[in-house]
Amino acid sequence: MSRILLAEDEEILRMLISDTLEDDGYELDEAQDGEEALKKMIAEEYDLILLDYMMPVYTGLEVIERVRSVPERRDVKILMLSAKSQMADQQAALQAGADYFMAKPFSPIQLSEKVGEILRK
């Protein structure tokens, strides 16, 4: 079973994403801000990180840069989720080390398909 960390500060969205991915059979762990996400990403092994761009304490970009500096976690797949959907924002996320970018709003089906696609690679 694939392990996913969901780092999202909006509780309603976090619940929706969790329910969707748990129904798909994934094991989910959650973080509600960048600091909690960073601690979990360093302490635990995940197959995929779903990371919100704008979070309290550390932004998604700051979390990525710090995690990518930890040799044991450099290869974890990261899908950045963001309402900031301009090309410059997408490029900033990818340059920081995100592997994928998904603009909000998205449907649970779109997210489920994207997660499945990433984890099958």
TrEMBL record:
Domain Response regulatory stretches: 3-119
Keywords, in A-Z order: DNA-binding, Phosphoprotein, Transcription, Transcription regulation, Two-component regulatory system
Molecular-function annotations in GO: DNA binding
InterPro entries: Bact_response_regulator, CheY-like_superfamily, Sig_transdc_resp-reg_receiver
Classification via Pfam families: Response_reg (PF00072)
In-chain residues carrying the UniProt-annotated modification 4-aspartylphosphate: D52
An annotated GO BP: phosphorelay signal transduction system
PROSITE patterns to which the protein is assigned, alphabetical: RESPONSE_REGULATORY
Name the UniProt record assigns to this protein: Response regulator
Organism encoding this protein: Metabacillus mangrovi
